[in-house]
Amino acid sequence: MFNDFKVMDELPVSIQVKEYVKRLIIKGALQAHQKLPSTRELSKLLHMSRNTIISAYEGLEDDGFAYTISGKGSYVAETLSHVPTSTWELNWSNRINDRAKQALELDRMERGVRAEKGKISFTSIAPDEKLFDLDNMKRAFQDRMSLEGNVLLNYGYAKGYKPLIEYLLRYMAHKGVDLKDKDILITNGFTEGFDIVLSALSKKNGSVICENPTHNTAIKNLKLHGFDITGISMEPDGINLQELEQALSEKSFDCGYFVPSYHNPTGIVMSPQKRQLFMKLMQKYQVPIIEDGFNEELRYSGSHVAPLMATAGQGNSVIYLGSFSKVLFPGLRVGWILADKELIHYLESIKRARSIHTSTVDQSILFQYLYNGNFEKYLKKARAEYKRKYEWTKQCCEEFIPYERLSGDGGLHLFVTFEKDFDTRELLAACSSKGVVFTPGDMFFTKDHEGRNTMRLGFSRVADEEIIKGIRIIGETAKQLMG
User: Fold this and answer.
1) How many separate helices (H) and strands (E) can be counted in the chain?
2) How distant is the alpha carbon of residue 325 from its chain centre?
């Protein structure tokens, strides 16, 4: 006994000794009321200082695994038995509900393209961590913790961290949004916000209308909430309004989900003119709008395009889902819902029931970073670098890929459409064997077997030399498959 103890690097040695003895007690190798080796004996056995063993024994006593008899030494405490009483096993696959099974079936991360080490991967549209503003982020953390660290480490409020809410309200006002009778709820990124909104809406019709293709995570959540999805095709300047009106006139919808700026996956920006007409159509048919502010900050050319919520004026028909995840630090998982005050009141209660609140530490660090004026400087640097990569990727696509249409007006990706009968799943399999992977476009379409001739190329985390190498391989392989 004690001869298999090995010192690891990551923990203080006294804690490692304590945990080692604790494991022996749990396994039954050391019995209740059995005398432990003296601190002097164990220090010799383990070749370490006696003070380390004393500290380990004190820790065992604190944890309820040992007790001391004055003048006699340390003994194993009597604990609840850890010996298994049965080998009872359940078949959990028979006890999983249909929603969980559907979640697994729709899980792109679990079942999707794997970017193995050494492969050139165009699958990600996350920001490039090499651009992260670590020094100012550390400073923001230190600033906020020194001001109210004790408060931040306790429970927070379901609605969110008040200074961040006030900052975001001003931020949205600068985008042209009329804040009359509107409020904000802080969420764990876009996905929780979307899920909370869908949980709150009635399913009178059980139907949602959206662009086609659209955000895969949105499709998954809509299906998990039991909504039937009607997808409307895209044009170079946004959603097809004639097709949209046709669908609205034929069927009633509980809500619409739209990504008007740097649309995921096509990268298309809905034109200002089309936004006005779009809003009039949605008003005519009284369909509430969930607006995804995806990538809104990553504009590389042209003038600012106001969110749909800005075109709604003082109206309350738009629910805006915002996040800095594609620009700043997705690891913080901070997003927000801006909507009618009464609606936010309901959403706050759902949030409280689900996750109590979004991490107050994360919210406060983000607020301090923004408050310190770092966002504008960082965004300028990030835009410049992503614009350069965007233009380089676009140039490579134009040179090497035999596409029918290439779209993407900004953001962190381009969308490629091939001739109608081309299969990008077949292309992916061929390219993967050559060390290149991308995201096939069919997973963004609202109906099965649609979009098999499309793909999304995320360039944000790919080096310049790999961009040209990977796109050349994609292009050459596509040409071979076309015959």
Assistant:
1) 17, 16
2) 7
